[in-house]
Write a structure and sequence with these properties.
alpha+beta; 2 domains; single chain; 400 residues; binds flavin-adenine dinucleotide; Elongation Factor Tu (Ef-tu), domain 3; FAD/NAD(P)-binding domain; 6-stranded antiparallel β-barrel
């Protein structure tokens, strides 16, 4: 029986603790917050999208995540959850949720499993240093030293520090010789020029979005975007954040969301409406296609005078300009919302310095890392929790 200290009581840390205890280790979890798993409660809008049954989507750490999840991926995790007593429902795009629809049931199951397997949890304890000596490791907090033969660092990245992960684990690993790749926020909202979207705050639109820089398309998504005072959010837009480079544009195609296959089709429809509704104020021309505030923003961006005119005065050229702008509503990206808003951290501890079979350091035997503290990030859809749980289990199991 080995003494194992797990730093961080998040998804990866709790999975590691449960598995190490199941393998017979004496486990203590150190959690800096007043309770474990605060972030889990916020995931998936409170529903916790805890894994994904479709193809893997890890823009960063692709190969490493693939090797970890080849050993403990969706199928194995499904069995793990069933064994704990958590039943899952798989929705569109392979996204898996607890059948209760509540993130709290995921956390409750993990807490119950830790309790049942004798894991000790010390909350309100921030690990401040890890030292290695001939007997193993000592982990120091402000007022205590914990001894262990193995240490599993699962303190997450920097995303949403109010939920616990504050980047404090990077220096612990750096001091032991590990390389830290500069952390950046991903899966976060885009700050854009605001003139073109003034008055649209709170409006959702179905669209295809792409990030374009110097005529190169860096990334494309489709889904629902949400306008706000500072720019644009929504899952499809947040998914683009990791691809934004200085000078990027966000190009939104709203045609399909309005039921059109092409700008030509929309042009024809606008001209048909013109002939039917000649005396109607032009502001009504897009009624039923989108809300009026979006219609005026599109006309403004298309350079078409919209006020104090009748639909009958719309020219063919203007109809085409409005339709083309609807297909490519373009906003300059000014930046990304930071770690306070981001769901995930890109960067962190270099995963090439860890063995994906048991998450053990290749530099310091007995030291492990799991979850978001590593330089692995996945797309929205359950990929980040799936990596956290999978890598946590492998770290706890340690090849046994
Ligand atoms: C709002 C939101 C929604 C999300 N939704 C989803 C989703 O639906 N699906 C999905 O797959 N992913 C989602 N994510 C991402 C996912 O939650 C994280 O990738 C995942 O929780 C990472 O798990 P982790 O255990 O590595 O780190 P964390 O969950 O961040 O846990 C780290 C823990 O370590 C503790 N800690 C940190 N440093 C120390 C220290 N020095 N000493 C002691 N304790 C320490 C922290 O307090 C924290 O409890 C979401 C994230 C956010 C913020």
């Amino acid at each position: 029986m080995a003494d194992v200290v797990v730093i961080g009581g998040g998804a990866a840390g709790m999975a590691a603790a449960i598995e190490a205890a199941r393998c017979g280790d004496r486990v203590t979890v150190l959690e800096r917050m007043d309770r474990v798993g605060k972030k889990i409660l916020a995931t998936g809008n409170g529903r916790c999208n805890l894994m994904n049954m479709d193809e893997l989507r890890y823009p960063r750490g692709t190969a490493f995540a693939g090797r970890v999840l080849a050993l403990f991926g969706a199928e194995e995790q499904k069995v793990f959850w069933q064994h704990l007593g958590l039943r899952l429902r798989v929705e569109d795009g392979g996204r898996a949720y607890p059948v209760s629809g509540q993130a709290s049931s995921v956390l409750d199951m993990l807490r119950l499993a830790m309790e049942a397997s004798g894991v000790k949890v010390d909350t309100g304890v921030q690990a401040e240093r890890i030292r290695r000596d001939k007997h193993g490791f000592s982990v120091q907090s402000q007022d205590r030293t914990y001894r262990a033969q193995r240490v599993i660092v699962a303190g997450g990245g920097c995303a949403q520090p109010k939920l616990g992960s504050n980047g404090s684990c990077y220096p612990l690993l750096a001091e032991l010789g590990h390389r830290i790749i500069r952390p950046e926020p991903v899966l976060t909202q885009l700050m854009t020029e605001t003139d073109k979207i003034r008055g649209l705050s709170g409006i959702r639109v179905k669209c295809a979005v792409k990030v374009v820089c110097q005529d190169r398309v860096l990334h494309e998504e489709r889904g629902e975007a949400l306008f706000s005072d500072y720019g644009v959010s929504g899952v499809c837009v947040m998914q683009c954040a990791g691809y934004v480079r200085p000078g990027s544009m966000l190009v939104m195609d709203l045609l399909e969301g309005m039921g059109f296959q092409s700008a030509e089709e929309m042009t024809e429809e606008l001209l048909r409406r013109k002939s039917l509704w000649g005396n109607v104020p032009m502001e009504q021309l897009m009624t039923g296609l989108c809300v009026s505030r979006v219609a005026s923003a599109l006309c403004l961006a298309a350079g078409v005078q919209w006020k104090n005119r009748t639909a009958g005065s719309l020219t063919k050229r203007e109809a085409r300009q409005i339709a083309e702008t609807t297909g490519a509503f373009t906003l300059k990206v000014k930046g990304l919302k930071g770690f306070d808003n981001a769901q995930v951290t890109r960067g962190g501890v270099d995963c090439r310095e860890f063995n994906p079979e048991n998450m053990e350091s290749l530099l310091v035997p007995g030291l492990h890392a799991a979850g978001e503290v590593l330089d692995v990030d996945g797309d929205c859809g359950g990929f980040n929790l799936m990596f956290a749980f999978g890598s946590g289990i492998l770290a706890g199991r340690n090849g046994r």
